[in-house]
Amino acid sequence: MRIIINRNADTPVYLQIKNQVRDMIFSGILPADTLLPPERSLAKELEVNRSTVIKAYQELKADSLVDSHVGKGTVVLSHTVKKTALPDSYINPLPWYQFFTDSINAGTDNIIGDIMAMTGDSGVISFAGGIPASNLYPVEILKTIQTELFTTANRELFLHSPVEGYYPLRESISHLLRQRQIAASPKDVVVLSGSQQGLDFAARIFIRTGDTVLVEEPTFFGAIQIFRSAGARVIGVPIDQEGMRTDVLEALLIRHKPKFIYTLPTFQNPSGVSMSLERRYQLLNLAYQYQLPILEDDPYGELYYDRPPYPPLKALDRHGYVIYLSTFSKTLFLGLRVGWVSGPPQVLAKFAHLKQLTDLHVNTPAQFLLDEFIRRGYYEKHITLVRQEYSARRDAMLKALEKYKVPGTKWDKPEGGYYIWCRLPDNIIRHKLVANAGNRGVVFLPGETFYPDGTQGDTRIRLNYTFTNQEQIQTGIKYLMQAVRETTSLDDNQESERNIKPLV
């Protein structure tokens, strides 16, 4: 029995012996009933203490690989693993659902995944996803910067970065925050793998099963899913043209005693509404009064098309109640997956701890690349470009909606962001509309997705205008309104079926 001991290895010697004997048993080198060498003789052969061999044999015995008998020694037991596989007909399918946690079992609606899966199809016009325009990606600039970084940063590009993020990038983000009127030093910023990770971390930090979280109604469906998966009860606060209704909010604060308030106050997803300045101060004052954190999500704040928005809640907060999330995914592109959080030091310490536990740090080359992109002034130029383009696409969608308008449809003109929140006729049937629009090659997100209770919004749809070009917007809205008209007019359904022109 050949055993090799590596005395410089971190693995204890007794485990080296145990592991090698185990491997010989499994491989058949030591068949059943093989008598292992006595502890004393094996210890002498390996030049180790006898107690080391005894401990190795005890480990093998604990794993039911060997057994020892007084006067007989230590013998290999019969293999418990059969070498021949069972016929497929004797193997029952694994009941995976029995292993899932309740939080995962709670999500059964696959309509979002189904619609998003169609986004990349060249034969589909997608108004569904919150995706930037790919033709505006600054690929050549980033390619130049990356080439230079391979020379200047060299191997540093592929080393780990601090858990809190690459410090020069945190400096650059601090500079961007000052432009948003937020006073945050680089140490007040933790870099994340997108703001979605920030939502997940906030849920883990603050939510215990049974806690309540207050959100706008409607709100970002991803936040609803994350908070629920953490065990929270998600309660909606209605919005109007000035944002979250603070009169309703106060009653809910008293009744439910939530863990925190989640809000997208600027170009809200999905409604496009921006919270008025008065409401922002009212919200902050309620948070101060009831000593409640506010989780502010601001992915769209820089994408204004008519006038600059009001300052973020974080900029107005003078007492450290606001945790501020933002991202580069909406202003640049989704693939980078770089976002950040700014908040009180105690909170950032928890975010950094979770970052260490999950993925250690954000992709290092992406952080270097973004930092240089910002420092060289390209980010500001890019923002100016996308504002112009997205404003034109927004106007193109509004014009098309007006041109092909179906009686009973309504919408408001958003001043920024990604979306038009459209109201449909009251007699619309959502699943039929999804099918009829899909037959014409058009996809969108239905409104009930954005409501915590899922029972509202059946006459609402969210339309994204940034992903498709103006020609596609014109065509897509035309076919979408055809589908709306067909779905609301049962008498005309058969005639409409005959007149559908498939999208190619």
Give the count of structural domains: 3
The end-to-end span amounts to: 70 Å
Strand order of the largest sheet: 4-11-10-9-8-5-6-7
| CATH fold-type name of the largest domain | Aspartate Aminotransferase, domain 2
Structural class: alpha/beta
CATH architecture of the largest domain: 3-Layer(aba) Sandwich
CATH superfamily of the largest domain: Type I PLP-dependent aspartate aminotransferase-like (Major domain)
Strand content: 5-15%
What is the overall shape? elongated
The helix tally amounts to 18
Residue runs with pLDDT of under 50 for 5 or more positions: 491-498, 500-504
Rg computed from alpha carbons, rounded to a whole number of angstroms: 30 Å
Helix content: 40-55%
CATH class of the largest domain: Alpha Beta
Question: Based on DSSP secondary structure assignment, what is the total number of beta strands?
Answer: 16
Give a short account of the largest sheet. 8 strands, mixed
Give the averaged pLDDT, no decimals. Answer: 89
Descriptive report:
The protein is α/β, with parallel strands linked by helices. The protein folds into three domains: 13-76, Winged helix-like DNA-binding domain superfamily/Winged helix DNA-binding domain (Arc Repressor Mutant, subunit A, Orthogonal Bundle); 113-134 and 381-499, Aspartate Aminotransferase, domain 1 (Alpha-Beta Complex), CATH 3.90.1150.10; 139-376, Aspartate Aminotransferase, domain 2 (3-Layer(aba) Sandwich). Helix content is 42%, strand content 13%. It contains 18 helices and 16 strands. It has helices at 13-27, 39-46, 50-62, 102-105, 111-117, 139-152, 167-179, 195-206, 221-229, 246-256, 277-290, 313-316, 345-358, 364-375, 378-403, 430-439, 470-488, 493-499, and strands at 66-69, 73-76, 125-126, 189-192, 212-217, 233-240, 243-244, 260-263, 294-297, 322-327, 339-342, 410-411, 419-423, 442-443, 445-446, 460-464. The strands form four sheets. It has an eight-stranded mixed beta sheet with strand order 4-11-10-9-8-5-6-7, with helices on both faces. Helix 10 (246-256) runs parallel beside helix 11. The longest helix has 26 residues, at 378-403. It is elongated and about 95 Å long. 41% of the residues are buried.
